[in-house]
Amino acid sequence: MSGTSADKLAFTVPSGRRRVTPVRVGREFRRDRLLPQLLRRAVLDDEGQQCVQVRLGAKDAANPAARALLDTEAGTAVQLGQVLGDTEYAALFPRLIGYELDTAEPFLLYDPPRGTAVSRIHVMGAADQEIFTRDLMLALCLLQGQGLVPRGVSPATVLWDGARVQLWGLESVTRIGRPRRPWGRSPFCPPEQRGGEGAADPRDAVWSAAQVLYRLATGRPGPADRPPADLGEHRKLDRTLRDAFAPRAADRPTPAQVLDLVAPGAARRVRAAVPPDETRPHHEAFEEALRLKRQAPAARPRERTGSGVLCPYCLETIEHDPSKLFVTDSRMQYKPLDLKGINNPVRLTDVMRGAVQKCTADPEFPTHYIPVPYLTNGHPLTVAMVGQSSTGKSHLLTQMIAAITDGGLEPYGLKWQSVNPEQHARFVRDRVQPLRGGKVLDHTAALGMDDFARFVESLLITDPRGQVRPVAFFDLGGEDLVRTDAALRFLLGVDALVFVVDPALALPLPQLDHARERWGVAVNRDGDLAFGTVLDRLPKNGGYVDVPAAMVLGKADLLRFQPPVDRWLARPPATSLDPELTRDESRDVYGLLRRHAGQAWLRPFDAIRRCTLHIASATGGQEDHGRYPAGAGPRRVLEPLLSLLAMHGLIQVPGGADALAVGEAPALEAVPPEGSGESGGGELQ
User: Cα-flanking dihedrals φ and ψ of residue 330, to 5°?
Assistant: First the structure.
């Protein structure tokens, strides 16, 4: 091997443990000129272990699309390793040794490939073709069982050692049902995939496999859009794969159907080898929890007392008073605003948009000013982020607001404006731009002894009916909530809660051990103290708190290869709210927390009648030396807020706001039990 580098290499092994070893690497090459990954052989000198490194150079690593390919490859390899373990089927795929993705030059490490790429094999004998077909269809069946479709099956990605197949090219994998995207080369790329038409189907890969087999049988590629004219001259190929060349996926056989032609019963044995689903009891517990919520008394509309608005700084009630208005001068100093000389309505509206009112509700509180639009558009909708320090609330809230200002609400018929242009510009300059540029935001300063809530930002949201409402965001130091009248008054006025779950604190999964060690934290089986403190102070109606809430499993990039996080984190952004999808995500997050973290971490869901659960990552990856190597790429940060806005009626959803969170009662559930006296008379004849 060329190269004598003795650099240290640090990476995570599939079990989650960290490994640091000297490494020697060989010459680098590119397997496919259309793909960014670089390959080289390496030796891990702590054990003399030979391997192959798949990596991105610094230039390609700056491209989010290239990183996404490496993430896909790593996630697929980890998932297959977990499912297949030491079974005979594990050899059908490359074995992952380790990975390091949150770094300037991310990489994967594999055992050396087994066999030769079939692109180097001219033709294959009939006996080998049968074994080859069996193995390739086994691999496709196993991927289908995990909800995956490999788009890159070709002579370059299928290896053969004379006895068994090994399928590489895992960066090409997509999920069944995702929109097709052009990938690969003709004729191995099926027609619908080449055109980017419809949704990914397991039978897409059957076309690709059939084309590989035709080339091995004949020594030449087949046509790109129809069955080969001479297929009948190759009896075994014709018997097993004639329909696999159908131009439409719907007309092709599934991998299991082809497999059972060459190895009867093999598809059933593959299904039996995959571990059973362990999430079912947790999903059933979720459905039972929703059933109990549906049976609880409906939420009472909150009564608003008085015409004042809660000051977001001193948390006292304040009335709009035109005699206390100010604007800033050229030196950014506040000066009184005299409205007497302004007669033009257009100019008056513009001036008032930038004006502030001095709040004197609490004489003991330091001088502060409230933007006038905050006081003149009805009661603000207050959204409080809840969680103990270092849970990632600040990063999540920053990216949530950034997503709004990027137009993320527009598909839902909502428009936004800043409450105060100057304050909003400062928020973007000090928070959004540095984070998007890859800078790790400073930790939020500690709250004072008597503080429990910090006002972060406010926006004016206009719903499809043209009604405008301020939405104010607070960072709630729940563990610092002292039992004072002010704290209780604030909590009683909160309109929506976002509980942020830190996976490092909640989930005792081995892949989080390195993060816990780096941050100096440990798993807390008793749940987040901030959650309990807030919930203890909120009144209940019919056994449940009536304030709508969202629970967010934050920092989800730490778990991007963990089911079901992998499935949701990779979903493309939605453009409409689907109650069924929202409940599916809630069920999956509930199941993950109930199974691994325990019921204490689900206390907000158990205590609050309308509560949805979400997966989100504010940054898309972890920091490396104080920066995010590829910038901070948020994923699913807006979904929790969309759910809250729907529960407050700003977004209309099928079935109404309640259906989004608790679902609609099935017909059987709505039928009174026998003997309840509520049947309304009459009997079934």
Answer: -65, -20
Residues 266-279 have a mean pLDDT of: 86
Average of pLDDT values for 638-653?
A: 95
Decide if pLDDT at 452 tops 70: no
d(CA 385, CA 388): 10
- The helix or strand, by DSSP H or E, that contains position 273, with its residue range, turns out to be helix 266-273
HEC profile of 440-487: CCCCCCCCCCCCCEEEEEEEEEECCCCCEEEEEEEEECHHHCCCCHHH
Q: Cα(first)–Cα(last) distance of the chain, in Å?
A: 86
Q: Are 365 and 315 in contact (CB under 8 A)?
A: no
Give the span between the Cα atoms of 401 and 473, in whole angstroms: 9
CA distance 667 to 678: 15
Identify the CA nearest to 629 among candidates 40, 6, 38, 71.
71
Percentage of the chain with pLDDT > 70? 92
Cis amide leading into 14 (omega within 30)? no
**pLDDT for the residue numbered 569:** 92
Single pTM value for the model: 0.88
Q: Quickly tell me which residue has 């033009």 as its tokens.
A: 344
CA-CA distance, 196 to 17, in Å (whole number)? 39
Measured CA to CA in angstroms, residue 487 lies from 312, 450, 497, 535 at distances of 13, 9, 15, 13
- CB atoms near residue 119 (< 10 Å): 14
Q: Is the pLDDT of residue 672 over 60?
A: no
